TrEMBL record:
Residues 1-18 form the signal peptide. Residues 56-167 form the Chalcone isomerase domain. It comes from the Bacteria. This is Chalcone isomerase domain-containing protein. InterPro entries: Chalcone_isomerase.
């Protein structure tokens, strides 16, 4: 009985600890860098992928460690603003409202040292984590590509960070 209990605990612990890394088990760190505004670092971002260059045909993960506190409402509003700015064509208001609601469900308020991660799931969408706890999954490929475009689109507001995340350095 004791051996069975130990096995159950070990299986539970490994599943609980897998978190976002469990979604990209064979991934390696592609690149990382800081996002700063007016000299203040807001967060450190890392890109994890099995394939280099990072490709929307494979799973990859964006992992962010925050240096300052940010409310989830601000994260969602900033994300929607960037998605709207980067869109090749106007996105319908009801789509943006749905995407913001998805972000509000998946995001949490963050403080210094808190970690948020997003895993791109090809042909499906995106899975979000706060620390190692999954906070949401959005089965919408258009949303997933728009969300990751905030960092990966060539027109991102942080081109140096984009190059660093993609492993191209400064």
């Amino acid at each position: 009985m004791r051996a069975f209990a130990a096995l159950v605990f070990a299986l539970w612990a490994s599943a609980a600890c897998a978190g976002w890394r469990g979604d990209v088990q064979a991934a390696k760190l592609v690149g990382e860098g800081d996002f700063s505004v007016l000299g203040f670092t807001l967060y450190r971002a890392q890109m994890w992928s099995e394939r280099v260059p990072v490709d929307y045909d494979e799973r990859f993960a964006l992992h962010i460690v925050y240096a300052h506190g940010v409310k989830r409402e601000r994260l969602a509003d900033t994300g929607i603003g960037e998605i709207r700015r980067l869109a090749a064509a106007p996105i319908p208001a009801d789509t943006l409202a749905r995407w913001r609601a998805n972000m509000m469900q998946a995001f949490v308020d963050v403080g210094p040292g808190d970690q948020l991660s997003a895993v791109y799931l090809p042909d499906k969408g995106v899975r979000f984590y706060a620390g190692e706890r999954m906070t949401g999954e959005v089965d919408d490929l258009a949303f997933a590509r728009a969300f990751f475009g905030i960092w990966l689109d060539p027109s991102t507001r942080a081109p140096v960070l984009r190059r660093q995340l993609l492993g191209a350095g400064q």
